[in-house]
Amino acid sequence: MLTRRKLIQSTAAGIAASTLAAPAILRAQSWFRDYPFKLGVAAGDPAADGFVIWTRIAPEPFERHSGVSTSALPVQWEIAEDSGFRTVAAKGETLARPELGHSVHVEVEGLKPDRPYWYRFYIGSDRSLAGRARTLPAAGASIEKLKFGVSGCQHYESGYFTAFREIAKQDDLAFVYHYGDFIYEYAYDYQYGPERLPVPKTREHRLREVYSLDDYRQHYAQYLLDLDLQAARSVHAFVPTFDDHEIQNNWVQNFSQDDSVPAEVFALRRQAAMQVWYENMPVRRSMLPNAGIISANRRLTFGNLAAINVLDTRSFRSDQPCGDRWGVTPCEGVFDKDAQVLGEAQERWLDSSLKRGDTRWTGIAQQVMMMPLNRSVYEDQPELAYNLDSWAGYDAPRRRMMSRLGKVSNAVVLTGDEHQNYAGLLMSDDKPVAAECVITSVSSGGDGQDQRSGSERVLAKNPQLQFINDQRGFGLCEVTQNEWRTDFMVLDKVSTRDGILTKRASAVIEAGPANLTIA
After folding, report:
1. Residue 217 is inside which H or E element, if any?
2. N or C: at which end does the chain have fewer Cβ atoms within 10 angstroms?
3. What is the Cα–Cα distance from 446 to 470, expressed in whole angstroms?
């Protein structure tokens, strides 16, 4: 009996087969009114034997269903050992499903470790541009050097994505860790310049704020149409996670920043936002959201050299204490013994990962600053002032993390969120246990300057902090058996596309007891 499901499957297969077998004059006719791969291609979550390859069928990204029929569409893909696709290592076909915005996530396996591959997609007669990604070295392999990038915080209206163009130019990165804030959920009503006077925005969001599934899909499309962002995602594998602006500024669990929004209503927004984040990221099926929850914590191992533990500091965190006010003296809630940042299950997972001890270096890749910085910058502020949306607002979980890091050799924490560069030591009872490198934004905050007003006071009040800088850019980490070096790469401006990239400083961590110097 020919069921409706079998009919759909056989029809889709027949379309694909007839397209591949048709004469050239017929194959030249696209299925779509416009190019279907406008949002580019990407690879992510690399392993020793493969990675995920991604694309999304969107010939008209701002139209209903992106200009695609509400059918599952067959998409062909291939992986090659060379850029000319003369030696094909793997190929196949998958379905771009309407339930997932016609996105495609192919988990490629069976590849050789520690080498580059090229990939591309076909649908009908249309072919995507070619992407490139590296596999990781085999577990336990003796490795001398790892080089990878760190980026995040990219408000579309605040500046151009020149940093991503520069990331695309970097030679042979193993991957790029994206710490989150891939989109910003709101448009600026106005923007201040250096003199605190209103200035024009670099470019405009189409939507003032996003709430629904369709809103988020169109918003991601606007970001992904940026060719500098497409370039970086097509040249290097990404390891993406999320922070707050993928949903709403400073959200945690189902707590909205707007106290008038009931938790069960905010949960619907979170569910839509997390689905669309998954639809647009090159991540594995294990990260498909379930009721708005994504299992984002995972571990990447680079031979015997380094393990990178990716954490989620939003989904399971207790509500911010003290009304989530910026720069206030810690209230009693900061010292709540039951407060959580990672949640109990993720803490157990991290403990298990850290106990493995199978690599020289241990990386912790997460979102909000672990250093409890005294942010008392201005004369009218109290003597002690914290950012309560960072680990500083959660004394008990932070102390547990410091104790945990004190038992690990050669630990380095990578952080985002701050829209500035920082480097310093993490302390446990006045003893350094790890180094933390905070990487600035791609564009959020606008052009910036070398030092923000009050930076000298922050440095003076925080002896564990050794470096601060207020420019846009990204980080480059180069790791050897003896040293971890994080280069702070900065642009002189992002308000125009011709920003000049320089290396502002390097944080150098030598293998051994926790240390950090600025070069």
Report:
1. helix 213-224
2. N
3. 10
Phi, psi values for residue 70, rounded to 5°: -85, 55
Question: CA nearest 503: which of 518, 491, 485, 515?
Answer: 491
Q: State yes or no: pLDDT of 17 exceeds 90.
A: no
CB 188 within 8 A of CB 157: yes
Alpha-carbon gap, residue 31 to 51, rounded angstroms: 29
Among candidate residues 369, 374, 436, the one with its CA nearest the CA of residue 405: 436
- For residues 225 and 157, the answer to whether their CB atoms sit within 8 Å is no
Predicted confidence band at 475 (pLDDT cuts at 50, 70, 90)?
very high
Query: In the chain, what are the domains?
Result: 4-134 (2.60.40.380), 145-202+296-518 (3.60.21.70)
Work out the angle at residue 376's Cα, subtended by the Cα atoms of residues 370 and 377, and round it to the nearest 5 degrees: 115
Contact 166, 151 (CB under 8 A): no
CA torsion angle 169 302 506 385 (round to 10): 110
Reported confidence tier of residue 10, pLDDT bands at 50, 70, 90: very low
CB-based contacts of 264, cutoff 8 Å, min separation 6:
254
Spatial neighbors of 85 by CB under 8 A, at least 6 apart, are 78, 118, 120, 130
Rounded CA separation 229/235 (Å):
10
Residue 291, pLDDT score: 87
Decide: helix, strand or coil at residue 285.
helix
Rg over CA atoms, the chain: 23
For the chain, the average pLDDT equals 92
DSSP letters along 130-157, please? Answer: PEEEEPPPPTT----EEEEEEE----TT
The residue behind tokens 């027949």 is 14
Six token digits for residue 406 = 């004190």
Q: How many CB atoms lie within 10 A of CB 59?
A: 21
- The secondary structure of residue 333, as a DSSP letter, is G
Give the other-Cβ count within 10 Å of 408's Cβ: 16
Distance CA(217)–CA(208), nearest Å, equals: 14
pLDDT tens string 78-116? 999 999 999 999 999 999 999 999 999 999 999 999 999
CA distance 270 to 292: 6
Tokens of 111: 């590849």
Structure tokens at 81: 């050992």
Which DSSP helix (H) or strand (E) runs through 119? strand 116-123
